[in-house]
Each structure stands twice: as structure tokens, then as C-alpha cells.
User: What shape does this take?
Amino acid sequence: MSETEQVVPPGHVLRYNFKERITHWVAAGSYLYLLFTGLAFWSPWLFWLAAVFGGGQISRMLHPFVGLVFAASVVVMYAMWAAHMHVDENDKRWFQSVNYYVQNEDEKMPPAGRYNAGQKSLFWGFVVCMVLLLLSGFVLWEPQYFPWRSVMAMRIAILIHASSALLTIGLFLIHVYMGVFAERGALDSMVHGDVTMHFVKRYHPAWYEEITGQPASPKK
Amino acid sequence: MSQATLRVQKISGHAGSVPGQDAQREFTVCKLIDTTTCIGCKACEVACMEWNDLPFGETVFDNTYQTMPETRWNYWNLILFNEHEKEDGSLMWLMRKNQCMHCADPGCLAACPSDGAIVQYTNGIVDFQQANCIGCGYCITGCPFDIPKMNPKTNRVFKCTLCADRVQESLEPACIKSCPTGCLHFGSKEDMLDTAEKRAKQLRDDYNFPNAGVYNPAGVGGTGVVYVLHDATKPELYGGLPSNPSIPWSVKLWKGPLKWLGNAAMIGGIVGLVVHYLRFGPKEREETIKEPHEGAEP
Assistant: This one.
């Protein structure tokens, strides 16, 4: 899928090209800033986080701008990856047997393609939440400048902003856990771009069959 | 009253104890506004501007006595005029001096995320500390009276302080001092309610206002500003005074169930993932992976 093919070690395959990786880390960096400053505004017990990022005023001032960066990076990711993220029948079966996945009995799972159903859900969850956060964030940004300033709109926007942010925190925790701790090699793929063929066969057997033309498991 | 009355009993966005909590000995203060003796002279508006040294803003002329539609960040005290048509067709002025109500249970303070940006003193005054204000405007969403207003240049929110600086020096607020008709009173909450009830009774018994009463809404725990109204059954007639104000449901939902649900989910999520890792571990351990070449084309 990359036009500027990068050289990968033998036995490896390119999973994320440079544009995909840089977009991911722009999103990750901006998301972390939004997460920590947002949590500062969420709870008095975490307001000290605002001090870490330069104080409450600066956090409040920059949070919306960094939000724009995050939204833009999600838009780029949407353009790059939406085509791979169509949820099909296989994904529904994947979710029906998700408890095997949780218990690391992946061999009992329907074979995942380039992205498994969980990854697709993460993608769509972040896209939908980004849109909700962006719209509600605009209402809250500088309401005094809008002639149609509506207190009721702000009240609703706060609820939408907080709820969708909480959803992204759930997605974020699972994403980091899967990428860093559960699937060894996933973090590397987002840093260096390539994964081993073993990784492909292990976690994305249908993708393995697609790119090699060989069956991923001898039994099947 | 000494400066001790300015001990703080409630702080916005604050974790942990509050210096003046349960330390109260002095009475809470209260402003009484008798709308039946207000003549709409706006002396209180001028006194407020003068004492608080507020920069002037543009007024609006629309052929009424209403010089501006609502309070502003630099205009904390505004008389709202309503030429009310009575049932018999005759007209009467309903004039209400509008300003912060200094709720015992302030919605602005509940909604504010910034530590110490809004405080409530033990004498009941709710005061904004602009140095700590981050300009999010959440206090605006928490107020049932639409009082806090943001200065668009500085992104800080302002409102009536009940002249906390005067009160701590044993002076009455500037608006009270300027009132020529005596429709404004200042004192302890207890005394003001007593005076208000007596006046309301007088209006009912002697002045043919059978619905006269005192406005001290329980939905916000009572207010530090109480009104005597000709018709306490219809406070909306007085420039939209809400008949049963309370902290908005959205703020209660957000600061109540949503907050606890969110906190439980976040902490539960982290604990759950740690437990999952300890129970099941990674999907594959590095040392068990046979690397590299598994017969696949690179």
C-alpha cells in the first residue's frame, strides 16, 4: 500500500509506511496532551495535571488547538485506513468468540485479516468520538464570541464532550495494552514499520494468506 | 464583622479540606430587595460601577427604560423593567434589581473545574477569584440565573461580589448605600427574612397585594439576596426570575453519576488490564517465537 517502498529485513513485511507512522504518533502525542489536560478539568483530584502542563489557563487555552491537531490526524488516518476497516460477517463471528481472544486462545478465533474486528472497532470508535468531541468542543471553545451563545447548548456539549472522552479513554487503554503488552511486535511495527512474517501469520492469518498465497495454518 | 468573615467554606475544583469549613460563628449576610418600593432610578447601578471601578460599556437605546438587556462582565447590577398589564387592564411597573443571588448552594461553584476560582465565604458571599479563573465558562452553565459573564478580551469571568471588600470592613454594599427609597436593606439573613416577611404581610393585609411574598428559593439552598415581590406566585414577570431555580440537571448529572461512573470505569479498566496481564500474559512470549524465516517469501 505504500508508494515509497521501504527496505525491510528478510522475513519481514512492511505494515505501516512512514506517512502512517508519523500520523499515528502525531495523533498519539496530541491525544496524550488532550487526555492529561482534559483529566485536569475532569476532576479536582487531577487538577495538578494542569500545573504540569503550564497551569490551568495555558492548558485551557491550548487544549482546543491541540484538539484540532488530533482531529486533523484522525481525518488523515480515516483517509488512509477507512478502506481496510469495513466490518464484515467474519468480524461479527470474531466478536461472538471474543472470550477466546481474551483468554489468548487465538487458534479458536475466526482468522483475522489485515485488521481484526477489535482493531476495526477501535478505529471507528475513535472516528466517531473525534467527531463528537470536535463538535462539542467548538461549542465550548469561545462561546462568548458567538451571537447565538446558548447556555443550554454548552450544558449539553459538556456532557457529550465528557462522555465521548471517557469512551476514548477506554479505547485508548485497550489499544495501548494490546499494542505494547499483549501483542509483541505491534509497537515495533508502528515505530519501524515492519513486522515479521511470523507476526502476520500469528495475528492476521487471513492477511498472511492474502499476501503469500499460502495457508496460514496447515490444518485448515 | 472582621476579616475573619472572609474565611472560605467552599472552594471550586478543590480536592481535600477547606480552611473555613465548619469554622463559622458569625451570621451569613443577606441583601433584601423590596421590589415594591423600587422606583427604577438606577442609583444602585451607578454606585456599583463606581465602587467596583468597572469600565463603561455601550448602552442600548430601544425606546424603553431598559438601557441594556442583561448584566455584563463589567455591569454586575441591572434593574430589569417590565411594564406589566394587570387583569383590569391597568399598567404597573415591575422593577427588579438583578445581580448575583449568592446562592447557599452555588451552581457556578459546582460546575467550576479550577481550584479556587470560585469560593464561598463563611458569611455566605460567593466570590470569583479571577486570578485562578481559566476561562472555560463552565460556571455560566451552572448558574440558574444567567449571571456570570466572560470578558472576551481576558477570558475571565466576573459578577457581583456583594461588595465583599466593603462587607469585610463592616460597610454595607455600594448599591445598598446609594438607594434613595430604602428598598434595599443589608444585614444578617435571619434579620432580612424577618423584615421581608413583615413587609410581605403588610402588602397582603394593607395594600391589596394578596399574593405578595418573599423570594428565597429553596432549590439552591436559599439565596444571599432575597426579594419582596408584589406577586410571589409569578416571579417570571420580574425579568424572568425563575420560580423554582436549582443547579441544572446537566451539571448534576455530569458532576454526579457521570463522574463516578467515569472514575470507576477508568480505574476499573486499568486494574482489569493489569489483572489480565498477570493472569494471561502476552499473547506470545519472545523466547518462544521461532525467528525468522518460516518459509514465507519476504
Q: What stands out?
A: Chain A touches chain B through 56 residues (CB under 8 Å). DSSP finds ten helices and two strands in chain A.
